[in-house]
Amino acid sequence: MSYCKVFLKPKKEESLLRFHPWVFSGAIQSIKGQPAEGEIVEVYGANNQFLATGHYQIGSIAVRILSFKQQPVDAAFWGKRIRVAYQMRHTLGLAGALRNDTYRLVHGEGDNLPGLVIDMYAHTAVVQAHSVGMHHARFELAEALKNVLGTQLENIYYKSEATLPFKANLNAEDGYLFGGEVEDIALENGLKFYVDWQKGQKTGFFVDQRENRSLLEHYAKDRSVLNMFCYTGGFSFYAMRGGAKTVHSVDSSAKAISLTTRNVELNFPGDPRHEAYAEDAFKYLEKMGNNYDLIILDPPAFAKHKNVLRNALQGYRKLNAIAFEKIKPGGVLFTFSCSQVVSKENFRLAVFSAAAQSGRNVRILHQLTQPADHPVNIYHPEGEYLKGLVLYVE
Predict the structure, then answer these.
(1) What is the pLDDT of residues 260-277, one digit of tens each?
(2) Among 3.30.70.100, 1.50.40.10, 3.40.228.10, 2.30.130.10, what is the CATH number of 4-67?
(3) Is the N or the C terminus of the chain less surrounded, counting Cβ atoms within 10 Å?
């Protein structure tokens, strides 16, 4: 199989020699052939040395690398990559676990499959393509999933309408590649929850907070808990299992509040400790009293592009400053950023500035990140997107 060839400018091969999985458009000298977006291309150095194979795309990232070997990208290739990803989740004790059937099976560059996310919910795989190349490969990926997972897999739902480049004009539609409508209840650390993979955010649930939710459970006993930006209520029902005195869930989306209420009811039917409010986060924080001694701030990404980074950091400062001002003495604050363009250092600085503004004594108890099923490719540090701090506030 012959592929179109991309030739790099002199000295622009250095990042690929360090196995970084992206080729930027400014590094390209010339292209032999006319690759369509999503087509597989081979990348060569200025001296005609083969460097890598990847998906061609239009934009600042011109090639997402699939392999640093000269090999066909075919059914065997996809099958091997999916199998390696599954075996790692099995090693982590996630795949096939009795108390947990929810995990990320493929995490883009972290699993050497850039542009692809696959989350598992019970017997359903939710596949999300972030590149045209992965969109074109969706049926081969579905076959690979069926071969690797066997009878564990009953459904594959493709959910990429909102994640594919809109300029590509793919007219992609979400829908089942395999199976069909199923019971949408999954299990995480023994707790049940509904997953709306058809209309919910991301793939339907924020799998990346699993271990941080588990940590929160250990701090919840006899505390009054505020779960801000609650979405599906994950932190809320962990807090309840941990023995929280009261749990209040807040989200600006009425649909999210409905899902939170359903999830709490699924695990703690009729429990009077929980109340949910559909309200703007900043408005709720401004008007609330000093009622809480455990607060979770897990907002959506404030910055998706570097040109809005400054505004995002101001947002994190403002959000955390109110929490520091209002939390009870001896309170614990779980605060997060999921913005990839916000570095760990920038996020800490925003939180530290908020703490200084409040004049409270604050100690770091834990420094949090994404779980092991969201691995960071050692050659692609940009993949570390989730930052979190657990803080004790005197």
Answers:
(1) 999 999 999 999 999 999
(2) 2.30.130.10
(3) N
Using alpha carbons, list the distances in angstroms from residue 62 to 21, 56, 148, 380.
11, 6, 31, 16
Q: Do domains 4-67 and 206-393 have the same CATH topology?
A: no
pLDDT at res. 120: 95
Q: So where are the chain's domains?
A: 4-67, 75-187, 206-393
Q: CA 242 to CA 50: how far, in whole Å? A: 55
Q: What is the per-residue pLDDT across 214-253, written as a single tens digit (0 to 9) for each?
A: 999 999 999 999 999 999 899 999 999 999 999 999 999 9
Report strand pairing: 331-337 vs 294-297.
parallel
Q: Other C-beta atoms within 10 Å of 254: how many?
A: 11
Only one residue has tokens 């099976």, namely 105
Indicate the residue type of 376: V
Is residue 230 flagged as an active site residue? Answer: no
> Would the pTM of this model clear 0.85, i.e. be above it?
yes
For 10-36, give one letter per residue: b (16+ CB within 10 A) or e.
Answer: eebbebbeeebbbbeeebbeeeeeebe
Q: Check if the beta carbon of residue 394 is closer than 8 Å to that of residue 361.
A: yes
- Spatial neighbors of 345 by CB under 8 A, at least 6 apart, are none
**Which CATH topology does 206-393 take?**
Rossmann fold (3.40.50)
Q: Alpha-carbon distance 264 to 242, whole Å?
A: 13
Would you identify the CATH topology of the domain 75-187?
Transcription Regulator spoIIAA (3.30.750)
2 pLDDT more than 80: no
What is the rounded distance in angstroms from the CA atom of residue 87 to the CA atom of residue 73? 21
Catalytic, out of 149, 303, 327, 338: 338
Cβ count near 289 (within 10 Å): 7
